[in-house]
Amino acid sequence: MRTSLTGLILIVDDNPTNLDVISEALSSAGYKVAIATSGERAIQQVERRPPDLILLDVMMPGINGFETCKRLKSNTKTCDIPIIFMTALADADHIVKGFDLGAVDYITKPFQEQEVLVRVRTHLQLSLLTQNLEEQVTHKTLALQTSQLQMIQSEKLSSLGNLVAGVAHEINNPVGFLNGNIQPALDYVQDLFGLIDLYQKNYPQPDADIENEIKNIDLEYIRQDLPKLVGSMSEGVKRIRDISNSLRTFSRADSDYPVACNIHDGIDSTLMILKHRLKANETYPEIQVIREYGDLPEISCYAGQLNQVFMNLLSNAIDALEESNHGRNYQEITNKIIIITELSNGEKHVMVRIRDNGTGIGIDLQKKVFDYLFTTKGVGKGTGLGLAIAKQIIVEKHQGSISFTSELGQGTEFIIILPITI
Ligand SMILES: Nc1ncnc2c1ncn2[C@@H]1O[C@H](COP(=O)(O)OP(=O)(O)OP(=O)(O)O)[C@@H](O)[C@H]1O
Ligand SMILES: [Mg+2]
Fold first, then answer.
1. Backbone angles phi, psi at 29, to 5 degrees
2. Distance from C-alpha of 88 to C-alpha of 85, rounded to nearest angstrom
3. Mean confidence (pLDDT) of the chain
4. In the chain, fewer beta carbons within 10 Å around the N or the C end?
5. What is the mean pLDDT of residues 194-210?
6. pTM to 2 decimals?
7. What confidence score (pLDDT) does residue 3 get?
């Protein structure tokens, strides 16, 4: 980028005297000067060494100044270089034509040296400002895009998080009643059985009615089955409690600073939430999840956001597996997700690898997968934000890295590396 007002000026004129006078004036004012004696040469020279401004004569043999200007303006590499026409053709039509072709100014011959210098300086300054402005706009647009991404991400996180935390909370109370009452219910039942036993002991010859009823309800069977039945109810309640705990672990609201946490809990809670997508259905068998967890310390992180990363990577893996199952024979399919965690880099980092044997990603698409809004999934299925968000959370929030290796038709492995302390 040019930052000063001195620059390279290309003077295009077929008249050697004009060239001498102007180049002398510009050089003594501190500019670097290049010269071309025809339109064709000027175009070649601009391509080779783009100047910061062009002073262009109109009447020249070969292609004239207007045509030269037209060609320079139609080339994306040269179209932004400011052009000032210098000509004796001072009538309004010519001047308007010059401006229409994209020139920034028009100097009529014979010219005053001072005038040329002032105009050159003004237009260099203008072009410098425009260039800076364009850079700023690009920079701001990028910043805006990033903050938009952050907003969508936090919106996604907080709405999902709130919903999940709310559901988990609502489930907790009734689960608490069940859990608290199952054991007393079992105790009451045992008491009642005890009472029946006592009756039977004290009244070994009951009425025929009672005898019949005992047979009807199969009292002996009830006595054996009831504790088992209550046991399985208690198991069910325990599972609901696990799900509710996972939901709460998953949707942990993050504080403004990183907090020590166990990432295995995060992965497990995410898997629990995705369980319905791992189950077998009529088109494909169950997706096996193999966890090879290393012995990891707690790491300081934003747990809620990390869970969002696991969610995105695991859902992508499931999507890729589902897609790879299309048109295949049920019996031939083995869907696998392998999650490996280990310490790396002299125990300063943890590495999490999530591998699937799904579709894989073709070489041509590999450069794009982290791009904002890049998706290969149908409308309503993917927004193309998952990996962009994951990358932002890992790289910017956690100073970690995320990469992948993939082979089309074989599968994909995402690798996350996180520092233990941030
Ligand atoms: N494990 C994977 N296997 C195969 N392709 C993948 C895998 N992970 C990502 N991709 C490819 O990268 C693209 C971008 O993924 P990303 O998660 O950013 O968006 P998405 O899944 O399409 O939509 P979203 O996550 O926003 O719902 C996907 O559309 C898919 O083509
Ligand atoms: Mg995704």
1. -85, 0
2. 10
3. 90
4. N
5. 92
6. 0.63
7. 47
What pLDDT, on a 0 to 100 scale, did the predictor assign at position 5? Answer: 59
Give the total residue count for the chain: 422
Residue 213: both structure tokens together: 């009823």
Q: Residue 335 in contact with residue 357, Cβ under 8 Å?
A: yes
The residue assigned the tokens 């932004």 is 80
Beta pairing partners, 337? 289, 356
- The Cα 193–Cα 17 span in angstroms is 123
Residue among 376, 374, 358, 346 nearest 414 (CA): 358
Ligand nearest, relative to CA of residue 377: 1
| 285-332 pLDDT per residue, tens | 999 999 999 999 999 999 988 998 999 999 999 999 999 999 888 888
The residue to which tokens 């009292």 are assigned? 219
Q: Which pLDDT score, from 0 to 100, does residue 139 have?
A: 87
pLDDT at 1 over 50: no
Residue nearest to atom 19 of ligand 1 (CA): 384
Cis peptide before 206 (omega within 30 of 0): no
pLDDT at position 155: 73
Tell me which residue has its CA closest to atom 11 in ligand 1: 369
Nearest CA to ligand 1 atom 9: 316
Q: Which residues line ligand 1 (CB under 6 A)?
A: 312, 316-317, 320, 356, 358-359, 361, 369, 374-377, 382-388, 412
- Which parts of 8-59 fold into alpha helices (H)? 16-28, 39-48
Decide if pLDDT at 101 tops 80. yes
pLDDT value, residue 153: 67
Long-range contacts of 392-395 (CB under 8 A, 24+ apart): 392/146, 392/149, 392/150, 392/153, 393/153, 393/302, 393/305, 393/306, 393/308, 393/309, 394/309, 394/418
Residue 15 identity: N
Q: How far apart are CA 309 and CA 361, in angstroms?
A: 19
Long-range pairs of 68-74 with CB within 8 A, sequence gap ≥ 24: 68/12, 68/39, 68/42, 68/43, 69/98, 69/101, 69/102, 69/103, 70/101, 71/39, 71/43, 72/42, 72/43, 72/46, 73/101, 73/102
